[in-house]
User: Fold PBP domain-containing protein from Sphaerotilus natans subsp. natans DSM 6575.
Amino acid sequence: MEYLNPNPLRRRWVAAAALCVVAVLPMGAAAQDAAKSIVMASTTSTEQSGLFAHLLPSFKAASGVEVRVVAVGTGQALDMARRGDADVVFVHDQVAEEKFVAEGFGLKRVPVMYNDFVLVGPAADPAKVKGATISEALRKVAASGASFISRGDKSGTHAAELRLWRQAGSDLAAPGATKPAGYKECGCGMGPALNMAASTGAYVFTDRGTWLSFKNRADLAVLVEGDKALFNQYGVMVVNPAKHPHVKQAAAQSFADWVTSPAGQATIATYKINGEQLFFPNAPR
Assistant:
């Protein structure tokens, strides 16, 4: 498994790598080596929770294919795939995923696993949200003026947070919307957002997987959980080679097939931190 810098264009480094390989290997060997790796655009929650470090070595052992991960927000991951800079996408924003497929950029969306979101905040709970529904909790945070850290990065978590704010009566995505007094957007991944909340005593909306693997909790605690609105589904999609002919469809499909197979699903289920399962496989049988 290898993590890539998401900023350079994939086509640029692929072209440069190909020139280097051709210089030292016969053409057939270069093509064979290239086929053994794919680029996956995915989310910071899957990477920062430690899931990929557990999952991808098992896939490589089963297939011989190396997965090079670019971990960004879901919106960025989908945009990356739209440009042809990834072979497969593994993200968690069903509405955006279905739009991606409808536009012809993905071959098919297949559910893989789920976990849930939680609202974390200071143990003293100045907004008095503990035990409330998520809509009630967000209204209390807004009314109290308590500090709230939003990822603000168009990730799947950010999209879910905005959807829940809208259900609570605050459409923060609307042009010119007035945001709650303590609301701050960091434009960052889940780990940095949690660090900011821990250092400032703020509330923050997070996926449970990243929370369980997060070490720098200070006095943060889970205050709102269990609401059915906090369900968090992940899906996988192979990028459509009709849009980008250089996509490694066969190798990408082998990952999509494996991660939704009994072997892949069992590997997901066995990933735990301190005995607690982080993701729950639910691919269709």
Notes: The first helix runs from residue 10 to 24. The longest strand covers residues 106-122. Confidence is low (pLDDT under 50) at residues 8-33. The chain has two domains: 2-115+233-281, 117-230.
